[in-house]
Amino acid sequence: MPYLIRRLLQMAFVLWAVATIVFLMFRLMPGDPSAAFIDPTFTVEQQQAVRAQFGLDRPLPQQYLIYLGNLLHGEFGLSFRQRQPVLGMVLEVLPNTLLLTLTALLIAYAFGTLLGALMAWKRGGRFEAISVPLVLTTRAAPEFWVGMVMLAIFAFGLGWLPSGGANVAGAQYASEWDRILSLDYLRHLALPALTLAIYLQGLPALLMRSSMLEVMREEFVTMARMKGLPERTIMLRHAARNALLPLVTAFALGFGQSVGGNVVVENVFSWPGLGRLLAEAIANSDYPLAQCAFLLIALVLVLMNFLADLLYGLLDPRVAHGRG
Amino acid sequence: MDVAEARAAPAVAALPIRRRRGAWAAFARHLLRDPYALIGISIYAIFVVVGLTAPWLAPYDPMEILFTADGGLAASLPPSADHWLGTTNLGRDIVSQLVMGTQPSLIVGLSAAVAVASIGTVVGLLAGYFGGAVDQVLMRVTDIVLGLPFLPFVIVVTALLGPELQNIVFAVAVLLWPNAARVIRSQVLTLSQRQFVEAARVTGAGEWRILFVHVAPSVLPFSALYGAFAVGWAILTQASIAFLGFGDSSAISWGTMLQDAYASQALDRGQYFWFLPAGFCIVLVVLAGFLVSRGYEDLLFPKLRDDT
Amino acid sequence: MTELLAVRDLAVAYANGAVHAVDGANLSVRRGGMLGLVGESGCGKTTLARALMGVLPGGARITRGEARLDGTDLVALSPAARRARLWRDLAFVPQTAMSALDPVYRLRDQMREVLCDRGGLSRTAADARAVELFEAVGLHPSRLADYPHQFSGGMRQRAAIALALALKPKLVIADEPVTALDVIVQRQVLDTFRSLSTDLGLSAIIVTHDISVVAYLCDQVAVMYAGRVVEHGPANAVLEQPSHPYTMGLMNAFPDLESDEAVLAPIEGSPPPLSDPPPGCRFAPRCPFAEAVCTREVPPAVAVTPDHWAACHRTPEAAALRPRARDPLTWRGVAEATA
Predict the structure, then answer these.
(1) pTM for the complete prediction?
(2) What's any one GO cellular component for it (chain B) (predicted)?
């Protein structure tokens, strides 16, 4: 079977499995999911009508089939609290999360890759002895705490940047694009993106370091030296270029993981994104909303895992042709 | 069985045991020689001692609301001889909270390590040794787990099962064991080809005996490594859950301390002594795990070792 | 023909000088000549080749001696001056081109790197030259657009040769250039070298453990043993009338090139540890003709003919020793007796 088709089938299987796990988890949640719709004044008949409306009067396997069918049609239900389709609510905040993730990852990978390449180049020296433990420390620091420190210093202490949200309250914009491209939005984005980047840069830095150390032992690096090329050229054009391959994969994987991993940072900075929506929905027992947010986060994750695999094949000519 | 074979058996059977000692001895040597690992072990040791003696070390009850000599609420006091790190906005002693907060972190970290290492080892051994259906199931389960977003999953599990520590450990273990199992599986695959396993088979040892007596000891160092990874993840996850307000709010932990500081505008008031120490403690414990496992990882996966 | 490269008493040490992989090697390459550098694995021939290129693995360095290329001592040059000469004066063909060619660049880009960055050519000039070079080694120029992994083993090796020839180096050093290939492809690559030698007057050192490669390709040969060159001379003279007992033994280990009678008599024992070599002649412990002087004094290079020498105390008796060396019984039990 061609690789692409096999990989697509695998992705479909994972999506189905995740959807099933989500169904079971939310069906087992404490409390009746229809409770929010039922007033104490309702008669028993009225209560049952509401339950029937949710399909809760049917046996579990049938509910499961209805649930899967709804997912395929993009039906995620109504929010218990807001009484409006959850999909719209989730899609409304999705751009914020994607932008935050992308900004943070770009900063993290630009910085981390350079740092990792330098650590490999200057291996065994003082630079490496200091930077490796430092990078490990950033990986050990809880993101929300780093965010709190950033807030205390830059928002409350120095007053340079706003302390939360995505836009100044009450601001009006002609379109969504105007809002996102405004300087105000950028100022709100700065601290959460930087906080995330501080955590995220550790992986590319360590990955680049070990990947490049491995490449530096390759014969073609020795050959580049025999060709009389300057050390800079050898390191950048040959060692770093070959070492980059695993980082591209890691970037795609990291994107998928951060969309869900943003939960904490979004909450620290009151960033109106998916993670914050999910946490609030669970805290309010708004299960349809939480379920939809969770499914969307999982969907991004699975798609990115898939993309990472494809990218790996495209970028490494050996793999690309080997699979052809 | 041939007489010659029977006589050869004990000598051959002794091999894996020597191997196992070799691996642990290498681990011990690594700890003593690698200064980073030594620092990591020392940090662990200090926190374990603090955690065990926390009720006696803590100067106050961490939840007790304290009053000053003149009868006022001892709220938001700066650090002093009485309160080394000052008090919270409700008049609670921060040092006492910090000391008591050591316990949940250590409990979560260590139990997650044990859970991940044991599930991962058993499944990895079965999948690697028997292959077939177990192997297929392991691979598919790993795929699925990679499709579950980490923190959102833990949040939903705590919402479902309750905020207690064991549920956080359960969720973390569910997400981390397949990775450990996969690595151990591949180790078992190479080990089963080795001579001492072949030899044990020739002498008529049962499959289960071969698996647990001959193969298992050699993969235990890998289990330990993945257990060590789990410590950091579990501690960070527990703190995050507590910070988000999904944790057990009745129990003091570093995460709940930070959530309390955040919600009580400690950042706004610049009460660094309130929210910095708890964060530093989390960093130290998680970092200790990294420092110990980092060099150890080089030892187990020599491909990555830098010998140029 | 004049001397192009003269290596005198070259020594390369590993591990802070405790081990000498090359310890006082002498050899010379003539302009337009092909020198075969033969020896068992671990005799230091690859280290010697890499030392000449100035690229030794970490921890290894040249401790003494000189290597004069066209009169300039490469060892005495500053690193910068040394690097300026690399690939222009001296180029290298690796054992496995698969790992020696950067996998992520097309061959054209690898050609351009050498021709533009090191040779100062424009892109267009470089591309034209690359076509010439590919044709010279028998590769179709359209293959310049391919990545290394798209080549077969033999083609990859020829691409590596083309790269080595790019800047018209004075000397090419090839380290086991055909060892990794199967026999038929070996022949094709050797023929490539041969035609380059006759058409372009290529000067080269061919490092190999395979005497038949030397016999096929080289006009001169240097035999290495335990870090030293023990015999050096015209290929047919050394192969047909070896004057050092080690060369005699080595010839026994190969089927006779001329006749069909295969006398396979391996040299017993193994080369001495380089961390603790024996005093005197390093081959003495395995040599059936060793005398008391051999274990005491390092043998000097003794001329057999003006351009053929052997580092052996008994070189003058070589003609008498040769027939005895052909008898497998001569070699039996020598190593144990002296151990």
Answers:
(1) 0.81
(2) plasma membrane
